[in-house]
C-alpha cells in the first residue's frame, strides 16, 4: 500500500498536468471527430456515420468561407497594428522616464482587467458619437485597441529581462542607434514580440463580444458560428475548427523545434 502512495506523491504534479492537458484538448478532439460525421438534419450533435464530404467541400455552406476570410483579414491587420504600437509602448515604458509613466503603466492593464462587454459597449458609444459607420473598420479599430494591452505585457516582460550591457557593448563597437536596435535589441526582443503577435491574432480571430457590438451588418467567423448554432450546426464548422487547431499546433511545434536548435547552437 505504501509503494503506490509513494509513487503517487512523486508523480502527482505530472498526473495533474496530464489531466489538465486532457481537459483542454478534449473539446478539440470532439470537434475533430464530428468533422467526419454525416448527420441527419441540420444539427451535428450525435454521431451517425463516417463521411469525408465536409472535408471535400469545406465551403459548401453559403457565406462560411467569406466570414472566415474576413476574420483572418481583420485578425492580420489588428495584429499588425497592435504589435507595432505595443512594441513602441513597451520600450517607452521600460527604457524612458516621463511624466504620468506610472499612470500609463497602470492604464495599460485596464482592457485586460475590465469585462469585455464593458469595453465593447464603450467603443460602440464612441463610434456612434463620432458618426462612424459600423463595419470592417470599426471592428478593426476595436480589435486593435483590445489586443494592444496583451502585446504590451508580453513585449514588456521580454524587454525587462534584456541585459543592457549587450547594447552598451554594441555602442562601444561604434554601432549607431539604428544598428544597435536592428542587430542587438530587436533579435533579443523578438520572442516576446512574436508571442504578443500570436496572442493578439488568436484574440482577434475568435472574438465575439466586441465584434458583435461594433460590426453592424458585417459577419465574421465567430458571428457566423453563433448564428448557425441557432438553426443548425454545419459539419463544415467542425472542419474549419479542426484545421485552425492543426495550424496552431503546427506553429507551436515549429517554434519549439527552432528554439531547441538555437539552444543547441548556443551551447
Explain briefly what this protein structure is:
The chain has helices at residues 2-34, 53-56, 64-95, 101-107, 110-113, 116-130, 136-160, 164-172, 177-205, 209-214, 221-229, 235-266. With 267 residues, the chain is mainly α.
Task: Describe how the helices and strands are arranged.
Blueprint: H1 2-34, H2 53-56, H3 64-95, H4 101-107, H5 110-113, H6 116-130, H7 136-160, H8 164-172, H9 177-205, H10 209-214, H11 221-229, H12 235-266
Give short descriptive properties of this protein.
267 residues, MetI-like fold, 77% helix, mainly alpha, 12 helices
How would you describe this structure to a colleague?
The chain is mainly alpha-helical and 267 residues long. It folds into 2 domains: 1-55 and 238-267, no CATH class; 62-233, MetI-like (MetI-like fold, Orthogonal Bundle), CATH 1.10.3720.10. 77% of the residues lie in helices and 0% in strands. It has 12 helices and no strands. The protein has helices at residues 2-34, 53-56, 64-95, 101-107, 110-113, 116-130, 136-160, 164-172, 177-205, 209-214, 221-229, 235-266. Helix 1 (2-34) packs across helix 12 (235-266), helix 3 packs across helix 9 and helix 7 crosses helix 9 (177-205). The longest helix has 33 residues, at 2-34. The radius of gyration is 23 Å and the shape is globular.
CATH architecture term of the largest domain: Orthogonal Bundle
Oligomer kind: single chain
Kindly name the structural category.
Answer: mainly alpha
The percent range for helix content is over 70%
Q: End-to-end distance, in Å? A: 45 Å
CATH superfamily placement of the largest domain: MetI-like
- The tally of structural domains comes to 2
The best one-word shape is globular
Order of helices and strands: HHHHHHHHHHHH
Our count of helices gives: 12
Give the strand content: under 5%
Main sheet properties: none
Note poorly predicted spans: none
What is the CATH class name of the largest domain? Answer: Mainly Alpha
Per the CATH scheme, the topology name of the largest domain is MetI-like fold
